[in-house]
Structure formats: structure tokens, C-alpha cells
Amino acid sequence: MVVFIDRYVSGIGYIFAAADGSGFLKLSGKHADAWRGRQFKMQELYREGVKALDAIARNVDGKNFVDLNEEQQDQVLVALSGAPKPIKVTLGTKEPVTTFLQGSFDENLPFFDTLCLHTRQGFYGDPVYGGNKDQMGWKTIGFPGPKSLKDTMDGTYDTTEYFYDGDYDWYDLIPHLNESVPRDH
Q1: Residues 19, 93: Cα–Cα separation, whole Å
Q2: Interhelix angle 2-10/111-124, nearest 10 degrees
Q3: Burial track 115-151 (b if 16+ CB lie within 10 A, e otherwise)
Q4: What is the distance of C-alpha 103 from the center of its chain?
Q5: How much is the CA Rg of the chain, to the nearest whole Å?
Q6: Which residues, 6 or more positions from 65, have their beta carbon under 8 angstroms from its beta carbon?
Q7: Rounded to whole angstroms, how far apart are CA atoms 109 and 92?
Q8: Fewest beta carbons less than 10 Å away: which of 17, 63, 64, 98?
Q9: For residue 4, how many other CB atoms are within 10 A of its CB?
């Protein structure tokens, strides 16, 4: 996740991967200026967030977060988040799970929520962005994924088998179609 987050907040060099897998598109003009402004805010959020993380850590054991053991780090993250440590979620978990921040946009989120979102994006995102090393995030959920981003553009890789299973009656899937669009018979 470190490479993913470092790339993401470093500037405009790793924002949009080229569809052919050849690298990253270069932003220019007003698009580059807008992204730089956004990244300036994100960099400041991370700087202040890491300072807060280390301040809490020093209260726990007089050390920075990175120097604490795993149990102490959990304690610091609980304090930073303001919420109890979530239970372990496994297949078949019956308890309500309320710890999943959904969405993909990080604008105006507090540091802890941003860090959690970026960690998930780095773990499950396309490895071209610097996370999901050796496609470990995909392997964890049984998703083989494309070998490269290029494979998604030239037809080498196809997700049809994951989303299509025969004919669908769109009127059953989207009930309001019955009211707004007549069926073709």
C-alpha cells in the first residue's frame, strides 16, 4: 500500500494509467492545475494525520507509530478513529458490519477514513497504480484479474463470465421499467 499511497499523493505523474499499458497519461493545463490543487490538500491531510498518529502513539509508549508492536498500533488506530476495533469479518459472519466506508472519492474525508479508503484502493486496485502487489488483493477474493491493463483494452481479458449468466428479464431486474417503458413483445 505504501507505493500506491505515495504515488497517489505525490502529484500528477500516476493518476491515469494509459489504456495500452504503456505508462501513465500526462496531465497538462487546467486539468493538471486542478489535480495539483487537490493533491496539495491531500498531502497536507497526510502530513497532519501522520503527526496526529505519532502523537497518539507517543502517549501509548513514547514511540512513533511505526515503532510500536501490532497490539499497540491497533490501540492507536482505535484512538485515532474514535471507534472500537472492528470484529474479524469472515465468510458466514452474522453480526452487523458497520466498518466499511463505501465509495471511491476521498474529498473532505477525515484522515483515518482517507487512509482506510486508500488502503482498500491500493489492496484491490489494478497493480499498475502501485498497490495489489503480485495481484494479492485479487487472489484473496478469487478474482484472477487481467495480466496487464492492456489486456482489458484489446479483448484479451474479459469479465463476462463473472457478470453474465444467461438471459435476463430487465423488467424483473429494474421494476420501474414496467411503469416507464412499455415491453416489446
Answers
A1: 38
A2: 110
A3: bbbbebbbbbbbbbbbbbeeeebbeeeeeebbebbbe
A4: 8
A5: 21
A6: 50, 53, 54, 56, 57, 73, 76
A7: 31
A8: 98
A9: 21
Q: In whole angstroms, give the CA distance from residue 131 to residue 137.
A: 9
CA distance readout (Å), 103 to 11, 82, 116, 120, 179: 22, 20, 11, 11, 30
Residue 138 phi, psi (nearest 5): -65, -40
Backbone angles phi, psi at 24, to 5 degrees: -125, 145
Alpha carbons 9 and 128: distance in angstroms, whole number: 16
Dist CA 127 CA 137 (whole Å) = 9
> Which residue matches cell numbers 502487489?
133
pTM beyond 0.90: the answer is no
Q: Which of 17, 13, 55 is nearest to 35 (CA)?
A: 13
Q: What is the pLDDT of residues 129-160, one digit of tens each?
A: 899 999 999 999 888 888 888 887 777 888 77
Three-state secondary-structure class, residue 93: coil
For the stretch 115-126, pLDDT in tens is: 999 999 999 988
Cβ count within 10 A of residue 80: 19
Amino acid at 166: G
| CA atoms of 7 and 3, how far apart (whole Å) | 6
